[in-house]
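name: query_chain
kind: protein
chains: 1
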Amino acid sequence: MTELYVFRGTFGNAEMVTDDKSGKKLPPHPFGKWIFSRTIIVSIETRLIGGVDCRQVLANVAKDGYHHWPELESGSPSRGND
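structure:
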């Protein structure tokens, strides 16, 4: 299990996920700034809304320091009910 931190942009619907609660690993927001939203706990088997693959999320966070969700409606980093 891995604790990740979700940040929402001050403008738009984009969200970023990182393993750094300070948000320092996130790239600059193009129109505003990133604001901490919530903490999520994931593992490779975690099912996220929108069919987001946790393996890819964890790989991106390990490689780049963050994972980007462009739109809330198409895969918000929230746990599914399945």
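note: DSSP finds one helix and four strands in the chain.
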